[in-house]
Design a protein that fits this description.
Elements lengths: L6 E2 L6 E3 L5 E3 L4 E5 L7 E5 L4 E2 L1 E10 L5 E8 L2 E10 L4 E6 L2 E6 L9 E8 L4 E6 L2 E2 L3 E2 L6 E2 L3 E4 L20 E9 L5 H8 L15 E6 L3 E4 L7
Antiparallel strand pairs: 1-2, 3-19, 4-18, 4-20, 5-17, 5-19, 6-16, 7-12, 7-18, 8-9, 8-17, 9-10, 10-11, 12-13, 13-14, 13-15
């Protein structure tokens, strides 16, 4: 198991040391590379707010995995899957978990070795969720309503949380292997126009919860920060 934390240097887009360090960086033009299956390597972000009545999460990723894997995992002390974006390979669906509720969005052409842009929304008032995949919106589906996401939230990229901030299970093999970039999170439902702008790499309002252009994060294990491998990752 790789439990070391490593420091990134602008002069060297790999790692310059094994010293623990929290980052606050403009990652424009960069990507996280998760080069192997592990139950330890991940990127962690602790969120400042204690209550989320709505969520929009956008990211771009590429993988060749032919199994289930987590793309964006949020836990709180009371719920391991407070908000989770997950690929279920068995039923070929992108799924959104909100606490104990889950819905799937099928029909996507989730090709291997191709960058995909994915945005996921959920509103606690209506309970409705929606997913945008490479510029195409899904139908809106009911997930869960009547309660917000509350408590100290931790975001993990690269693993699926089975407990608050950890509990990664190598036997489940939900770890992500591939590259990820342009991760943003908002505490409101982003408008369709803004989502389309994100999809097309046009100007959009950066996330007010997580902003790829000013990201505070902590890396553990074998995760690299590299230059993005394409100019238009859509």
């Amino acid at each position: 198991m790789e439990n070391s934390k490593r420091k990134w240097s602008k002069k060297n887009p790999g790692f310059s040391s094994f010293c623990p360090l929290l980052f606050f960086l403009d990652l424009s033009g960069k990507m996280f590379t998760f080069p192997q299956q592990t139950n330890s390597a991940h990127v962690k972000m602790s969120l400042a707010n204690q209550c989320y009545q709505a969520v929009t999460v956008c990211h771009r990723s590429v993988t060749d995995l032919k199994r289930d894997h987590a793309l964006f995992s949020v836990s709180t002390p009371s719920h391991d899957n407070s908000f989770l974006v997950f690929w279920n390979n068995g039923v070929q669906e992108m799924q959104t978990y909100v606490k104990t509720a889950v819905v799937g969005y099928g029909g996507w052409d989730y090709k291997s070795n191709k960058w995909h842009s994915i945005c996921t929304t959920w509103d606690s008032v209506t309970g409705l969720g929606q997913m945008w995949f490479d510029g195409v919106p899904s139908i809106r589906k009911f997930i869960r309503s009547g309660e917000s996401i509350t408590g100290q939230a931790i975001v993990i990229l690269g693993q699926e949380q089975d407990k608050h901030g950890g509990g990664f299970d190598i036997n489940q093999s939900f770890s992500f292997v591939g590259m990820m970039s342009d991760v943003h999170m908002w505490d409101y439902i982003l408008s369709p126009c803004e989502i389309q702008n994100y999809m097309e790499n046009l100007h959009f309002t950066p996330g007010n919860v997580l902003n790829w252009n000013a990201l505070d994060f902590d890396i553990s294990g074998h995760v690299l920060i590299e230059n993005k491998t394409c100019s238009n990752c859509c």
